[in-house]
């Protein structure tokens, strides 16, 4: 990999370097080989939901107001209101966490494959 990058980084101003090569790397239309296909499909499966999850993380508001109200006025009504606000957020955070575990798992596949 370092050799490839050194080829791409050469400029014409260095007279003592090897000739400059024009190389086009098409990352957008790259296709996995047969040996890479299983890893590729697994990574694609995990990445499929990443955009939606990132958007949800960016829009995450929390339930601080409801929690503060339930602490300030610990009645059944305020506690139930806080629980109704917190419960979906806890479920969402669990989904985020599980997705991060999946990303970590497939990153090990990628690292392992790149070393082969």
Automatic annotation (TrEMBL):
Keywords: Lipoprotein, Membrane. InterPro entries: CYRI (IPR039789), CYRIA/CYRIB_Rac1-bd (IPR009828). It is a lipid-anchor. Its main location: membrane. Pfam families: CYRIA-B_Rac1-bd. It is found in: Membrane. GO terms for biological process: regulation of actin filament polymerization. GO terms for cellular component: membrane. Residues 22-107 form the CYRIA/CYRIB Rac1 binding domain. One of its GO terms (molecular function) is small GTPase binding. Belongs to the CYRI family. This is CYRIA/CYRIB Rac1 binding domain-containing protein. The lineage of its organism: Eukaryota, Metazoa, Ecdysozoa, Arthropoda, Hexapoda.
């Amino acid at each position: 990999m370092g050799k490839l990058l050194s080829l791409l980084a050469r400029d014409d101003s260095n007279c003592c370097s090897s000739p400059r090569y024009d190389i086009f790397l098409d990352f957008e239309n790259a296709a996995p080989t047969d040996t890479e296909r299983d890893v590729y499909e697994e990574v694609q499966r995990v990445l499929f939901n990443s955009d939606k999850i990132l958007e949800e993380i960016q829009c995450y508001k929390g339930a601080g107001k409801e929690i503060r109200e339930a602490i300030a006025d610990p009645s059944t009504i305020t506690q139930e209101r806080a629980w109704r606000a917190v419960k979906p957020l806890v479920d969402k955070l669990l989904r985020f966490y599980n997705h991060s575990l999946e990303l970590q798992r497939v990153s090990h596949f990628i690292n392992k494959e790149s070393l082969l």
